[in-house]
Amino acid sequence: MENIKGIVFNIQRYSIDDGPGVRTTVFMKGCPLSCLWCSNPESQCMKPEVTYRYTSCKRCGTCVEVCPEGIITLDDDGVHIDRTKCTLCGECVSNCLPQALQISGKEMTVDEVFKVVKKDADYYEASGGGVTASGGEILVQADFVAELFKRCREAGFHTNADTSGFGDPAALKKILEYADLVFYDLKHLDPAKHMEYTGQTNELILQNLKLVADSGVPMVIRVPLIPGYNNSDENLHALGKTVAEVTKDSVVNILPYHRYGANKYRMIDMTYQLEGVPELTQDELNHAKEIIESYGLKCEISK
Amino acid sequence: MAMKVDPKEIQSVQVLTPRLQKLKAEWEAAEPQVYVDDTLLFTQSWKETEGLPIDIRWAKALEKRLLECPLLIRDDEIIVGSLTKFIRGNGTLCAMKPHEIYEMCQTGRFARKTSDTESTKITPEDLAALKADAEYWMEHMPKVSTVNAALAYDMGEDVFDLLFDRGCVFEGRGVRYKMDRGLFQNYSAYGGGVAQVSAKCIDNGLNHVIELCKKEKERMMAEGDTHSHGSAQFLRKYWLLEACIISCEAFIKFARRHADLAREMAAKETREWRKKELLRIAEACERCPAEPPRDFFEAIQCVRMYHLVCWKESSDRPEVPVGRLDQLLYKYYEADKKAGKITAQDAAELLGALWLKIRECENLVTIPREQRAAPGSLLPNITLCGTDKDGNDLTNELSWLILEAMAQVKLSEPAIYIRYHPNMDPEFVLHALRCNREFGGGNPAFLNDILGTQRYLDRGVPIEDACNWSASGCLGYHLDCMEHLGGGHNINQTKLFELALNDGFDPRTQKQLGPHTGDASKFTSLEQIMEAYYKQLEYFVPVLHRIKVLTLCTEITDGPMSGLRCAMQYEDCIREGLTPKEGGARYPEGRTSWLGSRGLVDIADSLAAIKKLVFDEKKVTMAEMLDALKNNWEGREDLRQMCLNAPKYGNDDDYVDEIYDQLSTKVPEIMQRWIDPITGKKPMLFIGAAAGHIAIGKAVGALPNGRLAGSPVNDAACSVMPGMDVNGPTAAINSATKGPYAKEYVGYAMNMKFSKSVLNTDEKLQKLAWLIKAFMKRGGWHIQFNIHSREELLAAQANPAEHKNLLVRVGGYSAYFIDLPKSLQDEIVNRTMHEMV
Helix B426-439 vs helix B762-777: angle between axes, to the nearest 10 degrees? Predict the structure, then answer.
């Protein structure tokens, strides 16, 4: 079990928005959902992939020359890669001096990840912080996450599982056994809309929500609020009602829509679908908060 | 037991009351004016005192300025004491640097920065008088630099090849190829802590000090002096005591001139409330500094006068630390508050008024700011909190209020240092960070209270004294009025490394500056390179000791003793008959120059790049690397990029951190192998410092860390190569605290930058507080946080490659600034501009 492997796309230290205290967030790669607003599109595909940082590229064309598959092209808009044919040989990456091309996603053992996580033990101790597993979707790599959390528990680090809830209940149970906190995403209460915006329906998510609530592990419900997509009064009422039925103790955390992930789509030759969507006003946010609070729930807006 | 603090009360005070807003706005709007009265008075006095002992001449020159300079009490001021008669005057002394001033007079341009288009204003009459004054001193100053003459005599002309403007192996203080240090070369440019506001003098009154000096003089004459040895020293002590009396009496009269002026103004004043205020000012200035203050107002007015007079006396480069202001003022505040005579709001306004007075002191800049070691700063440091000898927390209500004053007044100086310890009230740390956020740029800084005291205990200082230290200079610290901080003689370590890569030959000056340590192109291991570098260091440390002894001692034997500085440390200096910088302080080791190092991070990164590319991966040969360095990477941008991409210190990466660790163990060992000839003890070590890295960088060629020839080396001791710490703040701190690096080295400062959005809630501030806690626990010494500026964001837009680590955060997500869409970047740039000072 010790050397169980996972695909990790980032380990972010001094992560201060992912739970109590100073934390390290381990981002697992691969997600069964494909939310339109996803701010980590490079996390969706389970396999490692080449990412392209447009702003660092010097347009030197070296990658075009060295690619053994001949699948890289360079035009006015920079470099494009035919990803269906990429073998991840890494030639373009190791020859890219400005480091515009990089490989996102790396197979790591729990040991290897824990070694990185452990480096900030002093900060966890000073702050009551610890480790957050996020993604991607952690339920896809539940054995890995459970084992990592187990190691963290033994070391006295607080553990937080950040999940969309879309996954095998058995996988969720494995993680819950070692989790001190769960960040649980709720995106839409209407199954059809959920399907439209995320590629999956929400039945499994609602079923798992109850599972977490019943487990007794403290939970924060996180709602990415996207104008025109899920901020209708109807959806917010449904959301408040559902959550209140399942758990009264959990805090609902509204994450206001932002465009911070927009440029990442270009990095993996994807197209951002939400171009032109405005950010929410403070009034709109407060309105959403009031609706949720009307169900007796505690609600916070993330800053 | 101090009074309980009510944070709400503190945070609700309005520091900049309408009258302070007006005074601040007036000062900001005022055009800088060259102020000449003091330099003319100094020269006049010097002419009048011909033939007298030099110490008396120095004291008389201060007396003349204090007794005859024009005074200014501005309308509505509550704390008085101005450096010049202008709202924004720039003081100067021609005697200290006549050539530089003469040159400025010739061009008529008194620029503060080379990029300035506007000159500091000066009237035609003042210009003529200043020019004549400069000419007088050009005639009368020694024709050669006595320090340089001593160096040339003792060490030969070749020694200059190592100094500031030539080879730049040593970044000497003032030992410059082109020397313009007038009458007393380097008299005041003597590192931090030159003349400090003395809490004991304030508390006991200067009449007490004068009395002690008189008694000691009488005693010497009646009983013979048992302390000083030899007739020459007897005479020095005799004159020093006289100089001390002259200076203290002049200081008292200077304050009383303000009392007279305030009474005159009161007589003409029609507004009843202002008349009362002026009379109150007169009363305070009449009494203090002669006698102890009777309340908070008198104490704060007294601090103002001390700071001003120390500044005037230092004249050329006044680095006058204010000291532990919260400790100094607290008993006065507590008594007034308990008696119901004062509120936090009253105190806040007085502190704000003091702030404006300290900040408004400016000296004429003769070397453009860009070329100076500490640009734009005259270092009037304020230190807060700490622990007493029993480990009790000394944070009090004034610690809170002073931070609040700093944040609300929002001026670049004074800088605040907090003596942080783990028993501090977490609420206070949050308050400090809130103020940091309000202020923006790195103020306050946090120092490790336990480590600061421990370093003194290790030197044998008893705990009663060891716990009484404060920040001085740019990154130094000293025992309050118990030692003199002698400043640093710095070794440019990057230059030695460059020499080691070139068999001791300096490519820039085309001279063999160091010993032959082997042809680096034939080196086959990292150890060989390090060995060559250590040999260079072993060769140069004794050379530096000799330069240091000659420089310091020549400066002292050729300069006057300051009676004022003797008075500030009267408990020890009167008995010894020596000024602090001569060794009259209670703990005299600090008077000698500290051995400084710059550039160890550059060397560690350079070695890591060589290890990776030449020895591990064998991508290039050593000869190829050296060739690229010689040509400043011309035609080898590819190799430069590979070097930039090699592991960099600051990322918690053992590949390079282990190299840094080796350097950090070996370099102090070599530097402390020779005793300090002046004290007979192990030399004290210093690292980093303000902005000297720009100046010394100009003399260093390209380095294997990817750095271009002539560009700055790394700024502080443990700061990371700009833009190269991509693993976040905990990783950077881990790199900096892997070993006990700060134990031997003073000045070990960690400079961190955060975006405002990282600090936008109290919860996030709390996380920063925990970062400080862990930093100190890991043995860190000094940490400060900068909120990035608009300029930096714009630079990141223009040059993303160098700003890869700039983080902005919203919600549960953070992003690298350079990855954001242009429109969003613009939005953040503009938003930050509104938020920033």
Answer: 110
A156 vs chain B: nearest CA distance in angstroms? Answer: 16
For residue range B279-336, list pLDDT tens digits in order. Answer: 999 999 999 999 999 999 999 999 999 999 998 887 666 778 899 999 999 999 999 9
The model scores a pTM over 0.80 = yes
With vertex at residue B239, the alpha carbon angle to CA B238 and CA B241, rounded to the nearest 5 degrees, is 70
Rg (CA), chain B: 27
Determine, for residues B774 and A126 on separate chains, whether the beta-carbon distance falls below 8 Å.
yes
CB pair distance less than 8 Å for A260 and B820: yes
Assess whether A241 and A98 both reside in one domain.
no
Nearest to A101 by CA among A243, A268, A231: A268
Work out how many CB contacts closer than 8 A connect A with B: 109
Which chain A residues are within 8 Å of B637, Cβ to Cβ? 97
Which residues of B lie closer than 8 Å to A, measured between beta carbons?
637-638, 641-642, 645, 652, 727-731, 734, 758, 760-761, 764, 766-767, 770-771, 773-774, 777-778, 800-801, 804, 808-815, 818-821, 824
* Cβ density class B498-520: b for 16+ within 10 Å, e for less: bbbbbbbebbbeeeebbeebeeb
Give the structural domain span for A154.
Answer: 5-45+107-263+271-301
Select the residue of B637, B652, B813 nearest A260 (Cβ to Cβ): B813
Q: State pLDDT tens for residues B244-276.
A: 999 999 999 999 999 999 999 999 999 999 999
Residue B520 per-residue DSSP state = G
| Distance in angstroms (rounded) separating the CA atoms of residues B833 and B790 | 6
- CATH code for the domain in which residue A139 is found: 3.20.20.70
Q: Which residue in chain A has the smallest CA separation from B638?
A: A97
Is A138 found in the same domain as A187? yes
Half-sphere exposure of B492 toward its Cβ, with a 13 Å CA cutoff? 29
Measured between alpha carbons, how far is B818 from B831 in angstroms, rounded to an integer?
16
Is A202 found in the same domain as A56?
Answer: no
A232 and A96 within one domain: no
Domain ranges of chain B: 1-30+192-197+300-471, 37-141, 206-291, 490-759+768-787
Cα distance between residue B703 and residue B495, in whole Å: 10
**Complex ipTM:** 0.91
Name the residue of chain A whose CA is nearest to B735's CA: A119
Cβ distance A53 to B819 less than 8 Å, yes or no, reads yes
Taking a C-beta distance cutoff of 8 angstroms, is the pair B53, B234 a contact? no
Q: At residue A102, what are phi and psi to the nearest 5 degrees? A: -145, 160
Of A14, A119, A263, the CB nearest to B729: A14
Q: How far is B807 from chain A (nearest CA, A)?
A: 11
Say if domain B490-759+768-787 classifies as CATH 3.30.470.20: no
Q: What does the alpha-carbon distance between residue B710 and residue B724 come to, in Å, rounded to a whole number?
A: 19
Tell me the shortest Cα–Cα distance from B811 to chain A, in angstroms: 5
Bin B691: left if φ > 0, else alpha if -120 < ψ < 50, else beta.
alpha
**Residue contact A97–B778, C-beta within 8 A:** no
Nearest to B485 by CA among B551, B375, B580: B580
Partner-chain contact B770 A126, CB within 8 Å: yes
Closest CA to B497 of B535, B527, B544: B535
Measure in Å the smallest separation between the Cα of B796 and chain A Cα atoms.
Answer: 11
